[in-house]
């Protein structure tokens, strides 16, 4: 089984991604690292521990960056609700505690221990990994693969923070820039494909009478209401679960390698992931982008995996 670390800013789709990864039974999840993002870090941490409790798993969780690499924090309460997971687990009491090790240090330790066998699944801002690379640059040669949910590449103008910017990159563009330029094996699962995997009420109803039905239904209600306002239909994009889906089955997505950089200066396009499709910059390709997705096959696998 692949040895993975999941780096999360647990809002709704992060929670679904964690459950998908666990219930796939195909991943050796070494730990989950938390990062400020969709909601503040204390919310992220509490949500992560609740999701692990719901799944009945004792996977260690490591607290990460409280704020971005350089800039001020931004959050997405309007999408993820007051607590980040649609208040779906308000009544849950969690006794599980966080590990003492800081997330960036856990990433460093794991890179040394599992040299080249380690996959990082990054579904929040990239602050923790940027901090780890800053502290110990040598780990860039020890991490096997980094799969990132972030950015918008071919479909510029359809961002979710600015017209050209996606939240995870926008929330810490400086950290993303650091990560993209360290020579890592990076695959970027961007809005170009995640906006093609929409979960609807019909999908949720396929989970009726299963372990996760109530949580998925309650957690995604506000998320789908946001989709209704945005698209005119009750639906929500499975950004983070698709990122896990790629790690489980790379054939779900097509990939092509190009040079990708991150805009950190312009107020009009801060956080934009700029892909040099025509090689105009003369730079070596550094990121595998995902131009296509088998959305039907992914949705079938995602729902089937949670259908316990």
Automatic annotation (TrEMBL):
It holds the Pfam family IU_nuc_hydro. Residues 4-300 form the Inosine/uridine-preferring nucleoside hydrolase domain. The keyword Metal-binding does not apply. Its EC number is 3.2.2.1. GO terms for molecular function: purine nucleosidase activity. This is Purine nucleosidase. The keyword Hydrolase applies. The lineage of its organism: Bacteria, Bacillati, Bacillota, Bacilli, Bacillales. Gene3D superfamilies: Ribonucleoside hydrolase-like. It comes from the Bacteria. Keywords: Glycosidase, Hydrolase. It is an enzyme of class 3 (hydrolase).
């Amino acid at each position: 089984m692949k040895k993975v670390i999941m780096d999360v800013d647990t809002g709704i789709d992060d929670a679904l991604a964690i459950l998908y990864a666990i219930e796939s039974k195909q991943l050796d999840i070494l730990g989950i690292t938390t990062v400020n993002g969709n909601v503040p870090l204390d919310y992220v941490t509490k949500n992560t521990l609740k999701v692990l409790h719901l799944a009945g798993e004792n996977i260690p969780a490591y607290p990460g960056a409280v704020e971005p690499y350089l800039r001020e924090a931004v959050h997405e309460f309007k999408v993820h609700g007051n607590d980040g997971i649609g208040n779906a687990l308000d009544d849950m009491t969690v006794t599980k505690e966080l590990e003492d090790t800081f997330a960036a240090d856990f990433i460093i330790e794991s890179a040394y221990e599992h040299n080249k066998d380690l996959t990082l699944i990054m579904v929040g801002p990239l602050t923790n990994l940027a901090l780890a690379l800053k502290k110990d640059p040598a780990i860039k040669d020890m991490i096997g693969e980094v799969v990132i949910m972030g950015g918008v590449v071919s479909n510029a103008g359809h961002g979710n923070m600015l017209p050209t910017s996606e939240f995870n990159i926008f929330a810490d563009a400086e950290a993303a820039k650091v990560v993209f330029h360290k020579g890592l094996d990076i695959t970027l699962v961007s809005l170009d494909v995640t906006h093609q995997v929409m979960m609807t009420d019909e999908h949720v109803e396929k989970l009726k009478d299963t372990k996760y039905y109530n949580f998925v239904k309650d957690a995604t209600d506000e998320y789908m209401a946001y989709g209704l306002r945005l698209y005119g239909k009750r639906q929500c994009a499975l950004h983070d679960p698709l990122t896990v889906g790629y790690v489980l089955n790379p054939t779900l997505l097509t990939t092509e390698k190009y040079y990708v950089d991150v805009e950190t200066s312009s107020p009009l396009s801060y956080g934009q992931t700029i892909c040099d499709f025509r090689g105009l910059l003369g730079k070596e390709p550094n990121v595998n982008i995902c131009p296509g997705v088998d959305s039907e096959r992914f949705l079938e696998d995602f729902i089937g995996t949670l259908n316990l």
